[in-house]
Amino acid sequence: MGELLALAPVIPVLTLEGAADGVPVARALVAGGLPVLEVTLRTPGALEAVRAIADAVPGAVVGVGTVVTPAQFDAARRAGARFAVSPGQTPALLSAAADAGMPYLPGMASVSEAMALAERGYRALKFFPAESCGGAGFLRALLAPLPELRFCPTGGIDSAKAEEYLALPNVPCVGGSWPVPAAAVRAGNWDRIEALAHAAASLRANPAA
Ligand SMILES: O=C(O)C(=O)C[C@H](O)[C@H](O)COP(=O)(O)O
């Protein structure tokens, strides 16, 4: 999973009302410089959108988010997802991720959760919900005791906050929905999404991350 986090400074989080929006949104994001896309499994057409993006947008590395049940790994893999993300993690999800052989970004929000995941071999973790659980200061505090871990903070992040996180040597990228505003998707304003992606892609992670 670490290699995927190094591909771009921002992973846009897509919650798509209609599966048909997936391809144009993905094309706009990839054109703007954000190739790694997380489609949340919160809407009925999400897996269909993943399949369409995987088939029709060659530059995209599409994965699924909001993975909360073990069965979702297999469904995601069959739809063409290249990685999976969860807001937290459970023993059943960790076993299903290992069985699926799919790169997995498990969520955590405490030091003990980070340590438990490190014990299981995870080096790349999602810090969620980042802004509600201590923000950039929390991750800065983990640098000394857990220097080998890398975090993708997500939850309440906008472009200005993204810069603050990306300055940290343990944050290769951040996740967020801000490059994909629901109003722009509804309006079919793909140019707006491409412009937001372009601005997000121009952010720079700390070279040590
Ligand atoms: O669905 C998941 O797996 C989640 O963990 C939640 C998402 O990461 C947030 O919905 C990000 O959204 P914003 O806070 O709007 O940037």
TrEMBL record:
Biological pathway: Carbohydrate acid metabolism; 2-dehydro-3-deoxy-D-gluconate degradation; D-glyceraldehyde 3-phosphate and pyruvate from 2-dehydro-3-deoxy-D-gluconate: step 2/2
Keyword Repressor: no
Keyword Lyase: yes
Annotated EC: 4.1.2.14
CDD domains, A to Z: KDPG_aldolase (cd00452)
Gene Ontology MF terms: 2-dehydro-3-deoxy-phosphogluconate aldolase activity
Major enzyme class: lyase
Catalytic activity: 2-dehydro-3-deoxy-6-phospho-D-gluconate = D-glyceraldehyde 3-phosphate + pyruvate
Keywords: Carbohydrate metabolism, Lyase, Schiff base
Gene3D superfamilies: Aldolase class I
PROSITE patterns the record matches: ALDOLASE_KDPG_KHG_1, ALDOLASE_KDPG_KHG_2
Pfam families hit by this protein: Aldolase (PF01081)
Family: Belongs to the KHG/KDPG aldolase family.
Quaternary state and interactors: Homotrimer.
This protein's name: 2-dehydro-3-deoxy-phosphogluconate aldolase
Origin species: Vineibacter terrae
